[in-house]
Design goal:
Strand content: under 5%
Shape: elongated
Number of strands: 0
Largest sheet: none
Order of helices and strands: HH
Helix content: over 70%
Distance between the termini: 26 Å
């Protein structure tokens, strides 16, 4: 249950970072807020990559198991 909670928190943080970048992009169009947009998008990409690696490691170690369409191929 802890792992699912961490994954959900990571997804919420990714969405919040994307929303923050959108806000800074649309609301203010000066150089300072352009840097804020860049930082928010960089954080989102880093968090997405970290989440992907985390899920791959959990799948490889057998802690979580895929249950979708691709799991029936094996």
């Amino acid at each position: 249950m802890l792992i699912k909670t961490l994954i959900i928190i990571a997804f919420v943080a990714i969405i919040a970072s994307l929303g923050s970048a959108l806000f800074h992009l649309v609301k203010h169009k000066d150089q300072a807020n352009s840097q804020k947009t860049l930082k928010a998008l960089t954080f989102r990409i880093g968090l997405s990559v970290a989440l992907f690696i985390f899920v791959v490691i959990l799948t490889a170690t057998g802690i979580i198991e895929p249950t979708g369409i691709g799991s029936r191929i094996h």
